[in-house]
Amino acid sequence: MDVAQLQLAIPVVLTALLAIAAFVTIGRSPHTVLRAEDLPVRLSDVVGASTTQRDVVDTLTLFQNHVTFRQQMGGTARRGILLEGPTGTGKTYMARALAAEADVPCLSVSASAFQSMFVGQTNRKLRNYFKALRRAARSKGGAIGFIDDFDAIGAARSGDGGAGVVYELLLQMQSFGQPSTRNRIVGGFTHQLNRLLPRKMSLRRPAIQEANVLVIAATNRAAEIDPALMRPGRFDRTIHFDLPPRTDRLEIAEYYLARKNHELSVSASLVADLTAGYTPVRIERLLDEALIVALRDGRVAMRYHDVIAAQLITEVGLAQEVGYHPDERRRVAIHEAGHALTAALAGRDVKLASILRRSGSIGLVAHDEVDEHYLQTPSEARDIMMVALAGRAAEIQEFGEASSGVANDLHTATTIAAELVGMLGASDSLLSLDAAQSSPGDNLVAKVFGDTTARAKADELMNAAADRAACAVLEHRRALLALADALVDQDELSGDEVHVIVAGALTT
Questions:
Q1: Where in the sequence of the chain do the CATH 1.20.58.760 domains occur?
Q2: Which strands sit side by side in the sheet containing 106-110, from one edge to the other?
Q3: Helices and strands in the chain: count of H runs, count of E runs
Q4: What's residue 12's pLDDT?
Q5: Nearest to 490 by CA among 479, 502, 482, 478
Q6: How many other CB atoms are there within 10 angstroms of residue 321's CB atom?
Q7: pTM of the predicted model over 0.70
Q8: Greatest extent of the chain over all pairs of C-alpha atoms, in Å
Q9: For 343-372, what is each residue's pLDDT tens digit?
Q10: CATH architecture entry for 18-180+208-240
């Protein structure tokens, strides 16, 4: 071969090699192997989830005693569990803690990593993943597979592609009893040898041992998982992760505060009270943000006010100057004073009143329930509607008309009115419009708007809330103007300052 031919052959050979390499690697399992020593978390580090942890411990006990459970007790080993709950509630954390306690390899992967644009490669990746699980289980005495965002591949079948992936999952969840490569080779050789030997001299084929594998899948959309995957022998156990109640938040706060520098003014009880509706991840982020606030101020330990400031930053963003025209500044102050006044009158816990920009909002009033509740009455919902419409009422009272600043307030109040009428039976009919079949893009507000009677009732609720707001800002105009004056002067008022101003105006 001369030089010219060699120069032409080299690119062709390289291209062919690259194509072969791409074909070989494109179907490789995308998992990462995590060993017990690589995982810093244990079940003792999982706090504030006693009920959930009990379920996980039962699963771990079955996994570690699978031989006894199957051979002596006659039970069937658990092969798959589904961890279901909102983002940040500790699903991944719990799965890794379980893998660490089991002291076996954990093959961790995001479900989206299985997906491929090439035909058949998604299924091939799945097969290779489960093959790696079986191999690890046989060499280490067990293996755990963790698939995050499981709905990306386990969602209910739609179209040939989705059906094929789910069908592959169903096959692989039943593959743990397959013989290993060594078993197949030795078994095949023994079979051929036995054909040559007399029956009395036949060799026993190697016993097939079922791989001790537990597959843990995590999702925040359990309703979308294909029902076939939830049947016995597959992901037949669902462990729910909910937002922690106060008792759990207290444990979580104690756990994190023991590891973060803080002054005595920051207690676990304080953090638990402030974080109703928070996930464990959000609680940790709040405390980290409080440490950032302290560091910005030249300190190395968080204080009470750092936690409050951190909560405002994480929930509504950093404060920014807007540069209002003087007249506009006064209007925004009146608007926010209306919200703050009615929130205080309604017995709400006002945390902040501001005319600064935070997270794209020009001014805001942050308020919540004084005590943590899991239910809301129609009266409480109407109070929130009144608070939402009080900014509009204050502007109309003081300036003769409302500005475009009422847009989000009307949106909030309309949504609540639609929920009262269409879902909570606050109309002349107890029928739930939310239960009605509709197109996927439809929502409750659209259903209420589409029903003449329901729309009229929602409109009535809106007008009643607007009238209550107008009466409140007129009756307590002294408090309204005092709040507005303070906001013009200071830009922001703490919840304590709002309540003091309102109380002072009401007593004079």
A1: 326-507
A2: 32-34, 106-110, 143-148, 213-219, 80-84, 235-240
A3: 19, 9
A4: 62
A5: 482
A6: 8
A7: yes
A8: 112
A9: 999 999 898 899 988 777 788 898 888 777
A10: 3-Layer(aba) Sandwich (3.40)
